[in-house]
């Protein structure tokens, strides 16, 4: 096959490109220029948007012996990922930009361009496994549970999976580094990227304040307890996420002396509500805008992962297809997820990725949650 290898400048994508060549594919390496001004995103080796990363990717391609090009997708990345990140936070939701990048950039814009140029597939360094199944290509968790990235790939459709390669999915990360060193790849010991690639220093709240400017909702507001009593002030709701404990700077402690967590964020009024951890317990999740890795289910008994590095939760799922409702217009497809054990710190805007065993069934964006505390009232 003719394969595009997306090379971020890290060890995983370089090793994946080398394996694709070793498997007999005709491989061309590409690096994505995602920043309109590389200095405005990250510097150093913490992300995947820097000049250093582009140079590392080019050197790796030279060692592997494949052609290498840089594709400028900075405008598309800014519109589909960065702007989405800002608008979601401004609306009081908690987005996952890595998942959005996979959906909109790596497996949409890149794959579309690759197919238009006559390539058959895109290879990346993601840790996930593809299997042929009775209904098409199946996406499964990787062999290395600590590095599994099937969650951020949960937005991929069957058509996209059919044109994807994940050469590292069956290999633990330490073995990938050893293999890269044997191949003479200088990125073998390069640290993994962390945080959000386009946030310069990992300070999400500061970055949002700077970038949103006049769009920043309620630069000041109240932090209240569940009775509505003000217990602190804040300088912007974008500094908070559901389930947050640190950095609240509350003016008075709870009556019982226990720590308090962010329970709700209301960006219009600027109100942040805090309370005990047990009041974060969620038993039901409603999802919208589902994307299925294969045939859409109507019901499912399986598991759901609700955060990129979160645990799996046993669940029952019901999918309600889009319908036309008289006098109410079109009701969009919803995914109702009943959790068999409570989950904590779940926020609208996050992704709910559904599994049947190790197989990814699909994903949905969390629109609402139902808590144990709400049901008890």
Automatic annotation (TrEMBL):
Boundaries of every tRNA-specific 2-thiouridylase MnmA-like central domain copy: 212-275
Site positions for Interaction with tRNA: 126, 350
Pfam families: tRNA_Me_trans (PF03054), tRNA_Me_trans_C (PF20258), tRNA_Me_trans_M (PF20259)
Domain of life per record: Bacteria
Catalytic activity field: S-sulfanyl-L-cysteinyl-[protein] + uridine(34) in tRNA + AH2 + ATP = 2-thiouridine(34) in tRNA + L-cysteinyl-[protein] + A + AMP + diphosphate + H(+)
Residues reported in the UniProt entry to bind ATP: 6-13, 32, 125
InterPro entries linked to this entry: MnmA-like, MnmA-like_C, MnmA-like_central, MnmA-like_central_sf, Rossmann-like_a/b/a_fold
Location relative to the cell: Cytoplasm
Entry EC number(s): 2.8.1.13
Domain tRNA-specific 2-thiouridylase MnmA-like C-terminal: 289-366
GO molecular function: ATP binding; tRNA binding; tRNA-uridine 2-sulfurtransferase activity
Active site: 101, 197
Keyword DNA-binding: no
A GO cellular component annotation in the UniProt record: cytoplasm
BP-aspect Gene Ontology terms: tRNA wobble position uridine thiolation
Keywords: ATP-binding, Cytoplasm, Disulfide bond, Nucleotide-binding, RNA-binding, Transferase, tRNA processing, tRNA-binding
Region called Interaction with tRNA, residue ranges: 147-149
PANTHER family: MITOCHONDRIAL TRNA-SPECIFIC 2-THIOURIDYLASE 1, TRNA 5-METHYLAMINOMETHYL-2-THIOURIDYLATE -METHYLTRANSFERASE
Biological role stated in the UniProt entry: Catalyzes the 2-thiolation of uridine at the wobble position (U34) of tRNA, leading to the formation of s(2)U34.
Family listed: Belongs to the MnmA/TRMU family.
Protein name stated in the entry: tRNA-specific 2-thiouridylase MnmA
Source organism (scientific name): Nocardioides terrae
